[in-house]
Amino acid sequence: MSMKGLTVFIADLRNCRARELEEKRINKEMANIRNKFRDGNLNGYQKKKYVCKLLYIYILGWDVDFGHMEALNLISSSKYSEKQIGYLAMTLLLTENSDLIKLVVNSIRKDLEDYNEIHNCLALHAIANIGGREMAESLSVDVQRLLVSSQKRTFVKKKAALCMLRLFRKHSDIIPAIDWAELILFLMDDQDLGVTLSVTSLITSLAQQYPEAYAACIPKAIDRLYRIVIEKEYTLDYLYYKVPIPWLQVKLLRLLQYYPPPEDKFLIERLNHTLQAIINNSQEIPKNIQHNNAQNAVLFEAINLAIHIDSESHIVSQAAVLLGKFISSKETNTRYLGLETMCHLAGFVESLDPIKKHQNTIIMSLKDKDISVRRKALDLLYSMCDNSNAETIVTELLKYLQVADYAIKEELVLKIAILTEKYATEYSWYVDIMLQLISIAGDFVSDEVWYRIIQIVTNNEDLQEYAARTLMYSLKSPICHETTLKVAGYILGEFGHLIANEPGSSPIEQFTTIHSKFGMASLSTRALLLSTYIKFINLFPEIKSEITNVFKQYSHVLDVELQQRACEYLAISNLPTDDLLQTVFDEMPPFPERESILLSSLNKKIADTEDKRIWVIGGKDANKNKDRRIVKKESVVEEIKPNDTVKEIVQAPKEIIPAEKMADIYYNKLMLADNGILYEDSTIQLGIKSEYHNHLGRIALFAGNKTQFTLTNFIVQTKSQNELKLSVAQPIAQTIPAATQLNQLYALECNGVFKSPPVLYIQYHMNGMPNSLQLQFPVSIGKFLEPIIMNCQDFFTRWRQIGGPPRESQIIFKTPNPIDVNKTRNILSNLHFGICENVDPNKNNFVGAAVFHSIDLGKIGCLLRLEPNLEQQMYRLTLRTTNEIVTETLRNFIERMLCVDVKGI
Asked: 419-454, pLDDT tens digit by residue?
């Protein structure tokens, strides 16, 4: 039955020539509908008509603040047309967090249990569209029942599978996927290929989180593929342009990539036979575009699976030849898929020669009219780069950078920077390329890029002079990007003395050249340059007067940061002696070696999809440690930043060790490291990331839920001595969902000598059962030591100045483990002692120096001599510090750490 009133209302709105007229007509209609709903004597047809009008008004973008209950009441109607409008209103007007959802859950459950399968489908549509937690908790069992029911028709099972997929993706902690594994896997053998297709989509998602529970999908997927491709077991309804059900083939091929190759010879032979048949069927390019697209979709996924199984197989060799043709195709989609698959191949193949044959074609793809193809060409060039072609590829990428789209420039800059650093054979080439990079696309050079340039220059003495000279030359150019100015400010402030005797680079010329760019720089860059100037005073006292004039000028500016820096630097430069100036503004030490932050930045830019990637862009080096089976994710340890999170849970050790004993092992390791696991059992995993500078420290405590249940009432408390101030910088949430990791940040201040570490109390509930943990925070006196390197004369001069007892302590002790000289050296280094070479004539003995930082005691010098006796497995430890309490505490700590068995040091 048509609704004439609705038709007339829509026609009236379409005839409105101005927004004011439309608004007037809508307000009139809404007033009429409000009065009708107040009447309460409406029949089902009238309710349906008025609800449809409200929905049309809502779709046009107008607010609808009434009529929700009348719309939801239609769900309980026995008539399909009214029930349909009720469900439509629910999906349009309500969100997953709406309070009204609770009112319709029972009506939806009733429709799920109804014998009318059309009603089942309406309910499944609504659940999938809204997908709220309330629905998932209340109705997921009913959805699962429809999915595995033998009495329901295939179209209900297909909708139930997709509804379950939606609920699992949004609320995986609620769905008992492991318990349902056997029943769901059974549906892969369903005779209806549509059911198999929907269930395969569901299993692909489930298998990524619970691979072991769904491992039985491997033989089922291989068998179904074999029957479709080889035995032609399908109906004509599923033949799409001569390609049998390509959607199912693609999903099965992708599902198998989440598992290692099967060990069963029969299965692997069947799979290889299937893959070979797919490749053989794709030798000829169909003239029909739909046929071509369907065939290629299956082919490229088959090649991906072949690479996953064995990247050196004959099938992959055949595929490499095909890929060379595809990347030259006239079809944009084919070129895109060819480049992407070749990028996958570059991540695992032993030799890149088959790919390098097409290098010119790939470079030309950077100029493709489609930006998606250009992106894939960039990914492939990045992945196929090695020592033999690095200069060519980097040069081409620099050329392309000048004309590249804005959307791709930042990623392009990152990749050029990474490749230049990775494959630089000459320091001059690295510096030249990076300066070109900044000159061409300075606005797209992120802070991480120029930070990395400074790290590399600082850590390579042979590079410092050339970098300073080149940057000085760049500054003299009329056009100088601000990022170049930042890099030059830092490098010349540190290493400007290396070129001070060269023509055109005298101290005053360095200062005037930089200061000529000062006025046009941003506030943050000016602040950096003020630090450069105070460094110049330390390096070149002869230009002190010129620089202090600048400090005087900027000590009255409005910007607080510039004013504070100028005032402080002016005060330091005017002190009677230069001791503080030389101490504070001495040359920066080398940066600690760590994974390039550029790689981390690049990985963050790679968008994740519903299906997890089994390979990453970046060639064989980036994929060599990639776990091909998604059993547990691995965490990436990076520097701690505000609001830092680590989403992945670290893998547990393979050996079976009681959790209490493992806690001691983890604790001892963390006493000698900044990052790692603190505690782990079958329920929870606690990880630590930390960093220390002088008397200050910062710790991120990561709590990972390893179960499929939500941890509630999660409370973390600490207790520490007065000598160590421990405060919460960022609290942790009290609820940790399944397979999720959250963090809590702590700030530390060392006030004095503390003899015992802080205590960590953790409480939480799982399934209503309380749990508690009491652990020690891995914070020791050694965390606040600063390593010092001294020569022989300075060491013994300082050794004699400190004198004997009580500032000296000596102990001889036997170790329970065989003494390893290299391991001993690592322990002392990890305790933050600087190892002083060529001080003790015995090469097996160690001499070390450090400074202990605290607020109350200030800086305490610490010297040690450690003499291993390899025959008797004993140590003689002699320690001298300028404070006897520090001497005793530090001696006991060093003795303990030399006696524990810390594996992996």
From this structure: 888 888 887 888 888 888 888 888 888 888 888 888
Is residue 653 predicted with pLDDT exceeding 50?
no
Distance CA 7, CA 10 (A): 5
pLDDT higher than threshold 80 for residue 634: no
Are the beta carbons of 57 and 30 closer than 8 angstroms? yes
> For 60, phi and psi rounded to 5 degrees?
-70, -10
Reduce the DSSP state of residue 745 to 3 states and report it.
Answer: strand
- Pick 594 or 376 by higher pLDDT: 376
CATH code, 644-779: 2.60.40.1230
Reply yes or no on whether the pLDDT at 904 is more than 50: no
Using DSSP, state whether 100 is helix, strand or coil.
Answer: coil
Distance CA 649, CA 623 (A): 19
Give the C-alpha distances (Å, rounded to integers) separating 751 from 459, 543, 882.
32, 40, 17
Residue 88, token pair as written in the block: 């439509």
What one-character-per-residue DSSP string does 601-634 give? HHHHHS---SSPPSS-SSHHHHHTT--SS-SS--
DSSP state of 442: G
pLDDT value for 323? 87
CA-based radius of gyration for the chain: 34
The C-alpha atoms of residue 781 and residue 623 are separated, in whole angstroms, by 39
Note the residue count of the chain: 905
Is 51 annotated as a binding-site member?
yes
Q: For 178-239, give the DSSP string.
A: TTTHHHHHHGGG-S-HHHHHHHHHHHHHHHHH-TTTTTTHHHHHHHHHHHHHTS----GGGE
Q: Architecture of domain 782-899 in CATH?
A: 2-Layer Sandwich (3.30)
According to the annotation, is 52 in a ligand binding site?
yes
Q: How many CB atoms lie within 10 A of CB 216?
A: 15
Crossing angle for the helix pair 44-59 and 80-93, to the nearest 10 degrees: 30
Is 49 annotated as contributing to ligand binding? yes
Say which amino acid occupies 227.
R
CB contact set of 530 (below 8 Å; sequence gap of 6+): 550, 551, 554, 562, 565, 566, 569
Q: Residue 743's beta-bridge partner residues?
A: 702
53 known member of a binding site:
yes
Is 57 a residue whose pLDDT tops 90?
A: no
The values of phi and psi at residue 673, to 5°, are: -145, 165
Domain extents in the chain: 644-779, 782-899
Looking at the DSSP bridge assignments, the partners of residue 859 are: 853
How high is the pLDDT of residue 477? 85
SS3 of residue 647 by DSSP: coil
pLDDT band for 628, please (50, 70, 90 cuts).
very low
What is the distance between the alpha carbons of residues 796 and 820, in angstroms, rounded to a whole number? 26
Cα–Cα distance, 408 to 452 (Å, whole number)? 21
Q: Which of 392, 336, 419 is closest to 621 using CA atoms?
A: 419
Tokens 């020539």 sit on residue? 17
Q: In the chain, how many H helices and how many E strands?
A: 37, 16
Give yes or no for a contact between 879 and 891, defined as CB atoms under 8 angstroms apart. Answer: yes
Are residues 605 and 618 in contact, defined by beta-carbon separation less than 8 angstroms? Answer: no
Distance of alpha carbon 208 from alpha carbon 234, whole angstroms: 28
